[in-house]
Amino acid sequence: MKIAHLVLTYTNPQLTERLIKVLSHPQFDFYIHVDKKFPIEPYLYLRKYRNVFFINDREDVRWAGYNTIKATFKCIKEIAASKIDYEYINFLSGQDYPLKTAEYMLAFFEKNKGKQFIEYQSIEREWVEAQPRITKYHFTNFTFKGRHRVEWLVNLLTPKRRLPLELEPYGKAMFWMLNPERAMYVVNYVESNPQLERFFLLTWGSDEFIFQTILMNSPYKDELVNNDYRYIDWSAGGAHPKILTIKDFDALRNTNDLFARKLNAEKSGKLLDALDKLILPAAEATAI
């Protein structure tokens, strides 16, 4: 069983390298998308690893903007075009880090073959605070002068927006583990319906609801497991999760999640070292 780990990053190539080394396995490949705003050259030394590939068609990723989805779609299409028979694409950021060994993860995917892992809630009934992301116009993807004023006026003068094609909106977290065919289903569905692309372009944080919405309105909804197996701490409040540190080690050691986010090469340095000591000996013991 082959797995493609897809990493969207702009932060620290050394942190990405640590992830690659900890998860090194003949069945794992790594696809790296470096935000187009940032130079790719600091990352290119990672080509020394045979299982590392760079996404060629890079996108200028804007936080909470539709460009994040455009970048993700480009990555999925390049992975699909590789013609390698991957069973799963595992979508990561450059600030995620493994909590289990490669052997553990491979056994997890083997055991759960045919299931799709993504967090979801109904935006109409459960995640109601996310409704304005869809019902209002957002110009997050644009940078023209007076953007916020225009956005305010448009929302003042226009009715609430509704998703095209009578889709029921679902969402939650942006990360997932999907079969490439299901990921391509989302890409093809959105790109073959221009009214959807136009609608999503003017939403906020579309990366946290497009995949859920399309899949939960698809023939594949029964395959979805409502869990992305990410350990994330939102206790700090605000729009960003807490940066994990060595104080979080015990919680991470005892979780069933496969990955932790969000880690920082400097603030999380001691935690990264502790996780490596936990994971690498276990991997060596499994190999023996």
UniProtKB/TrEMBL annotation:
InterPro entries: Glyco_trans_14 (IPR003406), XYLT (IPR043538). It is a single-pass type II membrane protein. GO terms for molecular function: metal ion binding; protein xylosyltransferase activity. One of its GO terms (biological process) is chondroitin sulfate proteoglycan biosynthetic process. One of its GO terms (cellular component) is membrane. It holds the Pfam family Branch. Keywords: Disulfide bond, Endoplasmic reticulum, Glycoprotein, Glycosyltransferase, Golgi apparatus, Membrane, Metal-binding, Signal-anchor, Transferase, Transmembrane, Transmembrane helix. It is found in: Endoplasmic reticulum membrane; Golgi apparatus membrane. Transmembrane segments: none annotated. PANTHER family: XYLOSYLTRANSFERASE OXT. This is Peptide O-xylosyltransferase. It comes from Mucilaginibacter aquatilis.
